[in-house]
Target: 4-coumarate--CoA ligase
Amino acid sequence: MTAANPFYTAVEIAKQAKAANAKLIVTMACFYDRVKDLAENGVKIVCVDFAVEGCLHFSVLSGADESLAPVVDFSSDDVVALPYSSGTTGLPKGVMLTHKGLITSVAQQMDGENPNLYYHADDVILSVLPNLTLFRSYN
Model:
């Protein structure tokens, strides 16, 4: 999973999508023009707000039969997310985050006394990506 900056141009998004080997892009209708050419290369485009010609609507995903989803084997060392750096020393670069790395980061936050965190062992924490600034705290 990777998140693209909404200020990126179509060329910048295409470069990132190619580097990430994107199969699916979830976007808003107002950004569809920036990603529509990727559909010619087999990338599925899903709009979350309005139905746009040539784009699937989010309701297609939300109505899918979960039992048809394949079981995927993965290693803790597999890349789970590919956020892009800000590119302060050049063009933005993908930062490979593994399952183990993200779990370790959460475990470090949970372990010990931190008066700013009010998590408990039984809490379930939902992270809705992309969040370009918060998610980068894991880099």
Observations:
- The chain has a mean pLDDT of 80.
